[in-house]
Amino acid sequence: MQQFLGVDDVSGSVSDLIEKCLAIKADPKASRYAGENKTLTCLYLNSSLRTRLSTEKAARNLEMNIANLDFGSGWNIELLDGSIMDLETVEHVKEAAGVISQYTDLLAIRTAADLDDRETDYQDRVINSFVRHAKVPVINLESAIRHPLQSLADCITIQEQSSRPRPKVVLSWAPCPIPLSQAVPNSFVEWMRAWGEVELVITNPPGMDLDPDFIGDTPVFHDQAKAFAGADFIYAKNWSSYQDYGKVYTQGQNWRITQELMNRTNNGKFMHCLPVRRNVVVDDPVLDCDQSLVMEQAANRTWAAQGVLLEILGELRKE
Ligand code: CP
Question: DSSP E strands: which ranges in 111-232?
């Protein structure tokens, strides 16, 4: 694996990568020295709990050095070529990426969508600008439109928890009072489709469909109760409008995940990437019951990160 921006960077099959991550989970220190004398720099342009801690833990399991940089406030990076930097940006990505590349062997970046202009967000400018100017492999810790480490952890979780081949997996929109990006649902759909081992269904209110390029041929139901019927996994996530870009859908309170809805499933498991707003996105009894996998998903973030680091380190060692 040369870099990790999305599922297209997986060298073999998604199934193989999941198996490698599960092997790491069974014996986290088996490749203990794979990262010795290598440095991972993680650049955080917005805050993170799970991604930060799991990536750090994964790097330490491989004996890597890790540097976490918080660029969230005050240190604004300029992305545009030829710009006159007389406003709030203090450093151009050409210098930032070039300098970081001198100190580190791998660069991981966490950024987010602005949710102002769809075309700009969907160009994924921050991460792609770093890829263009960095001299080291880049890892996506969540970008404007994708969150591949979360999706890999979700694949691992489904693989572990599934009691039958080709389980029915439902990605359900759920309400939230603030605008959230489409990164997690985009990636989830992308990975489920690339994996090919689940029957994926999306359900969301009318007018809240995701980007058609991500949906592809995935069935989309605008009747949530119908979509939940017989499901093995319910993956809840809010996203703001793709069509009326970045707008909050305010009429969706009845899309909250309730026990009544879960009762329509095939004893289905509940999934969410976290953080989650209790009793807004999902009711307490659903989140707190044995069928909830949110802790397992968070735990699997470490093995997803370690699997990806190991793949990229393997490629670096060949050079
Ligand atoms: N799911 C996830 O990426 O969590 P953080 O925002 O805490 O990293």
Answer: 138-140, 168-173, 199-203, 220-221
- pLDDT at position 135 is 98
| pLDDT averaged over every residue in the chain | 97
pTM assigned to the model:
0.97
220 lines ligand 1 (CB under 6 A): no
Q: In what order do the strands lie in the sheet with 106-110?
A: 65-70, 39-44, 106-110, 138-140
Instruction: Please check whether residues 179 and 249 belong to one and the same domain.
Output: yes
Q: Which of 49, 146, 151, 156 for a ligand 1 pocket mutation test, highest count of atoms within 8 Å of Cβ?
A: 49
Residues 248/175, Cβ–Cβ less than 8 Å:
no
Residue 224 belongs to what domain range?
A: 150-297
Are 133 and 94 in contact, with CB atoms under 8 Å apart? yes
In the reported structure, the alpha carbon of residue 149 is separated from the centroid of ligand 1 by a whole-number distance in angstroms of 10
Nearest Cα residue to atom 3 of ligand 1: 51
**Given a cut of 80, is residue 73 above it in pLDDT?**
no
Q: Which residues, in sequence order, are bridge partners of residue 107? A: 41, 138
How many whole angstroms from 47 Cα to the centroid of ligand 1? 8
CATH number at 90 reads 3.40.50.1370
